[in-house]
Amino acid sequence: MVLKIYNTLGREKQEFKPLKDGKVSFYYCGPTVYSVQQIGNMRGGVCADTIRRSLGYLGYEVNFVSNYTDVGHLTGDNEGDADLGEDRMEKGARIEGLSPTEIADKYISIYEKDIKEMNILSPTTICRATNYIQEMIEMVQILMDKGFAYQTDLAIYFDITKANNYTQLSGQNLEDLKSGAGVGDVVDSQKRNPGDFAVWFFKVGKHLNALQTWDSPWGKPDPRQGFPGWHIECSAMAKKHLGDTIDIHMGGIEHIPIHHTNEIAQSESANGVKFANFWIHNEHLTVDGKKMGKSVGNIYTLEDIRKKNFDPTALRYFFLQAHYRSKQNFTWEALEAAHKGYIGLLNSLLNLSEAVGQVSEEFKNKFAEKLSDDFNLPQALALVAEVLKSDLSNKDKLATIFDFDKVLGLNLEKNNQSNQGIKLEELSQEVQKLIEKRRVARAEKDWGKSDEFREKIKSLGFLIKDTKSGIQIFEK
């Protein structure tokens, strides 16, 4: 089966052929860990997770590397000049009265708890940027030795005019970037082009009191301490764990014009080969039709989801309903509908069978076809309903849907097995009497009466599952 992926680099769906047969090297731009991640970041994580799972389902061995940015991510990163503003980690440290390391530790812990609840698989390798400073310094030195980077009194910059096809990913006009005015509160007058970006900052000027700095081999008159630019981090970590050329690089669409464009320029200039064969970008999550922002007051986190008594898995179910390249609009009403759909699916599975049968090859192939068409998860998810309506035995329906869940990641088998139901004595007398009446009706083979009592029990908030060993009772 041919896998086709929309490649931002070519602006079209292209047949995927990995560098090594049966193996995929996959880098995903992870979070900057200066605060709690909002649900838009969670959507990006779920998109990457389902693509990773899809590749595994299609038979590939996936080496999935992601990162934590815990230094050097300045606030102007995707709006204007990426080298300007206050470092996010230091800003978080200043606001909370903690060190940058303590800030990173705190929010990495929260993030890892959140992704576990969202059933996002852990990366094969997770990179914390501050653990790779030496690799970044080495790459910066290579860029300087090759003439791609130059030094000023404030920083070391990559000269975008030296890059081969600098705007290949973004499609921007290079002349506009070269002549345009920088945006931000600090401009280095020694920069050759406004679009040149920093690969290393010195502990001088605005950054004289920087909290996170390391010894560097550069600086006048003596070597100075400094810290890496944001973009060099991913290039160095991807090279370290995946090699000079990788199969897939993924992140949000906001990374296209600056972060990913700069990654390509510095990686290909330093390594002398193509950086990534496929670039995948997920679209934004909006809230009530608007971009998320503090000024609008519409930034939600997973904790907000919990406070509204929604299972985080219901949020994952909601995310699965939109293609990764499509914008998705979050509303509480939409999440409520997703929650009902998810609970409905769990209830449908409870009523199928106690045993698991054989996976349907026909439906498995259909599922793989949807995944092979640029990871079309909404259509893949829709196949679950087709399986439930099919002529398959209940055991085979269960096996097939559990097989799909290797990609969907909805914990269907775990929930089905662990949900042993409610004890009869824990129910109200009213519900207990209805259950007894239904038992009598079934014994007398009065199936109409039995169904009537089932519906009455359901109206009171409980579901009945008949098993060989008796009934199981669940909350609706």
Kindly list the characteristics that best describe this protein.
alpha/beta; five-stranded parallel β-sheet; five-stranded antiparallel β-sheet; 17 strands; 16 helices; Rossmann fold; Isoleucyl-tRNA Synthetase, Domain 1; 3 domains; 476 residues; 17% strand; single chain
Task: Describe the fold and architecture.
There is one protein chain. The chain has 476 residues and is an alpha/beta fold. It has three domains: 4-282, HUPs (Rossmann fold); 286-418, Orthogonal Bundle (Isoleucyl-tRNA Synthetase, Domain 1), CATH 1.10.730.10; 424-475, no CATH class. It contains 16 helices and 17 strands. The chain has helices spanning 39-57, 88-96, 100-117, 133-145, 174-179, 230-242, 256-271, 302-307, 312-319, 332-350, 361-372, 377-389, 394-408, 412-418, 429-443, 447-459; strands spanning 4-7, 12-15, 23-28, 61-68, 125-128, 149-151, 155-158, 197-202, 214-215, 225-228, 246-252, 276-282, 285-287, 290-291, 328-330, 462-467, 470-475. The strands form five sheets. Strands 5-4-3-11-12 form a five-stranded parallel β-sheet, with helices on both faces. Strands 6-7-8-10-9 form a five-stranded antiparallel β-sheet. It has a three-stranded mixed β-sheet with strand order 14-13-15. Helix 4 (133-145) packs across helix 6, helix 11 (361-372) runs antiparallel to helix 12 (377-389) and helix 12 (377-389) packs antiparallel against helix 13. The protein is elongated, with a radius of gyration of 27 Å. It starts with a strand and ends with a strand.
